[in-house]
Amino acid sequence: MDRPxxxxxxxxxxxxxxxxxxxxxxISLPTTPNLxxxxxxxxxxxxxxxxxxxxxxxxxxESLSYPQLWTSVASVASYLVDVHNIKKGDVxxxxxxxxxxxPVVSFAVMSIGAVLTTTNPLNTAGEISKQISxxxxxxxxxxxxxxxxxxxxxxxxxxxxxxxxPPTHPRVVSSVFDIIKDGKGKIHRGLVKSSAVVTQxxxxxxxxxxxxxxxxxxxxxxxxxxxxxxxIVTRRFKLDTSLSSEKEIFICTxxxxxxxxxxxxxxGLLATGATVVVVSKFEMGDLMSAIATYKATYFPLVPPIxxxxxxxxxxxxxxxxxxxxxxxxxxxxxxxxxxxxxFTKEYPTVEILQGYGLTETTGMGSSTxxxxxxxxxxxxxxxxxxTEARIVDPDTFASLPVNxxxxxxxxxxxxxxxxxxxxxxxxxxxxxxxxxxxxxxCYFDEDGYLFVVDRLKELIxxxxxxxxxxxxxALLLTHPEITDAAVIPFPDLDAGQIPMxxxxxxxxxxxxxxxxxxxxxxxxxPYKRIRRVAFVQDVPKNASGKILRKxxxxxxxxxx
Length: 560
Fold this sequence. Notes:
Elements: E1 13-14, E2 19-21, H1 37-44, E3 53-57, E4 63-65, H2 66-84, E5 91-95, H3 102-111, E6 115-119, H4 125-135, E7 139-142, H5 147-153, E8 159-161, E9 172-175, H6 176-182, E10 187-188, E11 191-192, E12 203-208, E13 218-222, H7 223-237, E14 249-252, H8 259-264, E15 275-278, H9 284-294, E16 298-301, H10 303-311, H11 313-319, E17 327-331, H12 337-346, E18 351-357, E19 365-367, H13 371-374, E20 379-383, E21 388-392, E22 399-400, E23 406-411, E24 418-419, H14 423-429, E25 436-444, E26 450-455, E27 460-462, E28 465-467, H15 469-476, E29 482-492, E30 496-505, H16 513-521, E31 532-535, H17 549-558
GO molecular function, one term: trans-cinnamate-CoA ligase activity
Protein name: 4-coumarate--CoA ligase
GO biological process, one term: phenylpropanoid metabolic process
């Protein structure tokens, strides 16, 4: 990527084009047009004859070495083609918690040119039905406990199990364990043999955006998007594929059905020869035990887990040896100064790294890649390699310079192809020059660090003033009797909208709403004051830790 002469090396901003350029060293992407993500990953890592462990089930200890992973992928891919006639462009669904077989199926589907779609196991049958109606999968993989929910959502396609439970439903036709055991995979130099020619521009996955501000939409990601993501992830963690190097061990509790987990664990990190310890269900004690047992070095997580590690640090350090842990990687929402300092105080030998990305950007966008970068409190980091950005005034569409807040637009090889079957939404989000409108209000400082102010559509409009919920939430979390909080717009006849807080009190606290409003009111401008408070047991969040404000908005309106 050419860097213009008018580029400020300190901020990465070009005064001639009003474009921010990444300050990271550029990455090289393969130019071969006929290349799928599985072929790219499996030939990139030099472990085809090694005994390196790729995946471990933290609960059972069951594992797959890299050679077993490659042959398992080939077996499942051959099964899809030979038994179910799955063709290039057909959609295959995974409905499952984290599993060591999740990457196997993901790679198998994409290797033959089919399209992977995933959904949250916590979704209702009705929610799953909507996604199925939109994406129209030809086959589904799930676990036995979720078969009734899946079959209640649809009755049109066969189901393959991801566990060893005996089939109890007529729609269940096989299990991945049986497919792998039969060993019918056709391997050639570690690659799946298929009659389909898969190109980098072909669709690899159809993931549904979180829908935090509207109806969930199917995001079309290409093999090129995933390949760019793998190169960025590998560069960020400074991982290589040589057999002589020390292998890192990652804990995977982030859901693989979400772009965060799918990008990092089901595809990206397996290009490095690292070991991924898969945690199928979040429980703090089991999670800490897995870190200690398998001597994990990296722990990608979401902010609620990091906060819980701070709050329960005494118990955790007493019962678990976390001395192997080198870095935690937080995504989903920016971390405040108080949270970063609180974690560093409790776990002084562990670095905190942060990242910003969207489903629409294959999880990429910006990151902090060192302790020093993360200590620029509140930042989402520097732009990912090969990335361009603009800060755009939402009203005038003028491009803005350093330290000016506007909507973040991104351009890079990881940006989606568009929204599935929704040209109107695609046109509103992705322009003809490849710029993606993120919907996030942001600014870049004079050193090129990105700061996320809030979601554009989530700003509270109080008497014409714009109130960012994230600012008030960060303030609420500094209260000693509050463990979590979310702020939403509440309709008001005079003001239009007023800030309303949903608050989770610490156990045993009798904190009242009036005290909370007074606490905030002393620290913010009058128009930012919280004017309504409700108490909840939990703040609803999606898989990446983002607050589901629309759920709380609906709850508040239902109380009117």
